[in-house]
User: What shape does this take?
Amino acid sequence: MYSVHSAMFLSVLLYLSSIYQNEIDKWLDQKMILMGRDYLEGGMEFYQKEIKRGLLLRKGLGDMGPNYFDENGELERIWFEPTMKSTPDSISQSRVKEYEQLLV
Assistant: This one.
């Protein structure tokens, strides 16, 4: 019985943690928008470099690369971290697209 309760508690905790991380990332992006164009350009440049870094590391790690980075260069999360699907606002590519739209 304790294992069922523990599993349910951990599932809810992981779900709430992914919601919290997603909201924090949205909030940070909104704050950066208020700081001005230079910060948006800097944020866009940072995330573009992170994507390139992930792709380079994926290639450089050889057979182990897909274990750590997905095909888009995003860092694969460990089992206890929220997945990228549950935190869409944390994905570097989605952030870059949003920044590009705001800079137009």
User: Anything to note?
Assistant: The mean pLDDT is 81. Residues 6 and 12 are 10 Å apart (CA to CA). DSSP finds four helices and no strands in the chain.
